[in-house]
Fold this protein.
Amino acid sequence: MTTYDDRASLTDLTATVERVRSSVEGVIEGKPEVVRLSLTVLLAEGHLLIEDVPGVGKTMLAKALAKSIDCSVRRIQFTPDLLPSDITGVSIWDQQRRDFEFKPGAIFAQIVIGDEINRASPKTQSALLESMEERQVTIDGTTYELPSPFMVVATQNPVEMEGTYPLPEAQRDRFMARVSIGYPSAEAELQMLDIHGGVNPLDDLQPVAHAHDIVKLVEAVRGVHVADAVRRYAVDLVAATRTHPDLRLGASPRATLHLLRAAKASAALSGRQYALPDDVQALAVAVLAHRLLPTAQAQLNRRSAEQVVQEILQRTPVPAAPQQQSGYGSLGHGSAAYGQQPPRTL
């Protein structure tokens, strides 16, 4: 049994993540919140869905993140003729050995970039389900473990509906968060012209962290403390989506788990050993909205899932911080009262 040093782990996390953040932001200008969310999902052991119009840097973000952490990377261009075996792999008969030999597919990488995932058929999309949830692949009755860390970064264009297959609910639920990059500001676009106009910035991008560093950081995030009040707050938010009149499908229990994991990662990125309701609030839209299905009437009224989540955030009471002898008040949910926890050992 070794003592778990939270302070040392969080110090290492902050320094390492700062290097990765700076590296990625050198490629994706003017979108610090998008880069932070990507790192949050990575450290929370989740998968990221990037949904936006063409040409705003969706694939560039995924490649920059993968190259900055020196992990094995595979890119899958999803097309209508892509087969499940192209993703997971296939067993091929070896005449010399007179036995089947397994040829791993593109999913056997630490960072898997699924470009335009909604252009593949539902059968091919479903090939990702087991790997995203259980981090393994089963071929011909044999189970193969995927490397660690493992993250799927998928992109899709919401405006090009011709020749696409919308992701089913079960597939969207596997993604921890969805993010839209959006158009850059005028200043950021001018800077992009200066940087990207002559050379590709990915060519000069060097790794600033290693895969084993990310594994250690993931372990540090797992040790972040979450008070019972914060857990209850996350459960209340998710439960409210299941009874909201504008939604015909609410968030699943998996969404609650993803929201809690993301909140822990966000707290660690902020240098805290404990999560706050603020962490849950900041991530609620990104983690919950893509899992929700508005009713037909809500769609007629142009009510989006994001708007519904914002409404739920406004209506759900924020828990008060627990009383403690150090003098923190009972209402300041940013106080360190949420950080009270017994010593942890590994």
Notes: The first helix runs from residue 6 to 25. The chain is about 40% helix and 15% strand.
